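Subject: Sanity check before I submit

Could someone independently write out the structure tokens for this chain? I want to compare against mine line by line before I put it in a report. The sequence has 103 residues.
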Amino acid sequence: MVDKVPKSDLTIILGDVNAKLGKEPAYQKITGKHTLHEETNRNGELLCDFAAANNMIVTSTQFQHEQIHKGPWRSPDHNIINQIDHILVNQNKKETIEDVRSL
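---
Independent answer below. Compare away.
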């Protein structure tokens, strides 16, 4: 479906994808340096594969924020914080995005 959007358009995909993105070098061109998690889970791998196949990047992990602002999901006891909501944009339009945070 993404391949039907004209390349000149800015494509934004956002959602609660339950994808934990880690700091692995293999994904860093797609995720950036500011992920909350150390290791990518299976949904994160699928998200990175989708982004790579569609020439997109995950902007929700491209910008530096305080740790407290990176995790929109918290367990009821506040001991577990997850960054599982993500926003993707076209790689060639990334300069149009100034900052991204998911809440």
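---
OP: Matches mine. For the report I'm noting this point. The first helix runs from residue 28 to 31.
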